[in-house]
């Protein structure tokens, strides 16, 4: 049962168990938390969620979870974030679980936890066939472990740590024992063994997730769920910092690149429709207004001359910004039909054209690998050299940038204290119709250390693009129509 609904279950009542305006206010607070973590929830979805609550058994927590997910979650990639926030806003208990008392952690004669026996106990539970009873026992064991093994004294008082709970137990060491339990009675074929091994690893990951969820619940009671939500709930891949993005988040961005490309294409199409109206022709407007004493009653517009501009990308793909540049190249390449021509150049300390590598539908990680193996982007040292790259680009590809070209430079502008070739960039920007610089570093870091961002920003317009969401907004605003 959801103690957030009942107000009290297993422990002392939490001060902020419900919002001041009762359950409707609590639901609105939950929706606000979803929005803060990048899940777009509008008024209609909020109303739908309220309607769902009128037909569900509110004492069935899992039914409540699934009902709200149906109303509020649009994509499967949002489910992990939704579940993390649901566990904070609709906790399974308050304080120490009463059901946790049914499971007793084994101890030695001196009163210390017997890690060997605890591992044996956990291995037996994880090896058992899935059932509701097994799930409840694992949850109770996780709760007891957090209560007895995860407490520590922080600067602000007692708190809980999932790392401290599991550091001595090390459940990953139990995979072989779990595997033996799962393989018992099977034909021990290679296929069945591999299936059992993956199942064992998944069960260990699930138990670790149970401990982490229990820890977040206990910490949220002490410092508030809003604060825990800022760091303890999985963020959307679109909000991940390019310079600190994990492999799983980058893989999710790769899978969602086509969706983001469709969003950008729709925005560009809307801008193009507005641009077809043409600019105000002052001379024609004044002539039409002579009969009204010069008061412009009817506006005359110049005849628009729609053209599809050229787009050139110059991308730093060194280790520090490789994820950002690779994703941006893939994203912009998906918009190729929006431009008369798209050319993509990559560099580390040498520059080479890589447009042909995007002609085929190839996974992003494979494209990046091909850039390093099939092109000449790395010289002798292999460290970012913006000055050399800019000069080589201007000398080797003088026809790439023309008066119809929009130039996008991607990189963090960290030159390793080498000549930034400001004059070369000034010449390129002077020829191009538009010139912009997209920087994945926080603006407060521009100009620090070996960064020449501030100096480059004096020549071309520079924009901070730390996440895919920010990148999409900036690119949709800057790309020419």
Task: Give the gist of this structure.
By secondary structure, this protein is α/β, with parallel strands linked by helices. It contains 20 helices and 8 strands.
Fraction of residues in H or I helices? 40-55%
Query: Which structural class should the secondary elements be placed in?
Result: alpha/beta
In the predicted model, the low-confidence regions spanning at least 5 consecutive residues are 1-16
CA radius of gyration: 29 Å
The largest sheet is: 6 strands, mixed
Notes on the structure:
The protein is of the alpha/beta class and 481 residues long. It is built from 20 helices and eight strands. It has helices at residues 3-6, 22-36, 43-53, 61-72, 79-89, 115-127, 132-149, 162-166, 175-183, 190-223, 225-232, 247-255, 257-275, 282-288, 322-333, 364-374, 386-396, 422-431, 453-457, 468-478, and strands at 151-154, 157-160, 310-316, 341-347, 351-353, 405-410, 434-439, 461-464. Strands 5-4-3-6-7-8 form a six-stranded mixed β-sheet, sandwiched between helices. Strand 4 and strand 5 (351-353) form a beta hairpin. The longest helix has 34 residues, at 190-223. The two termini are 55 Å apart.
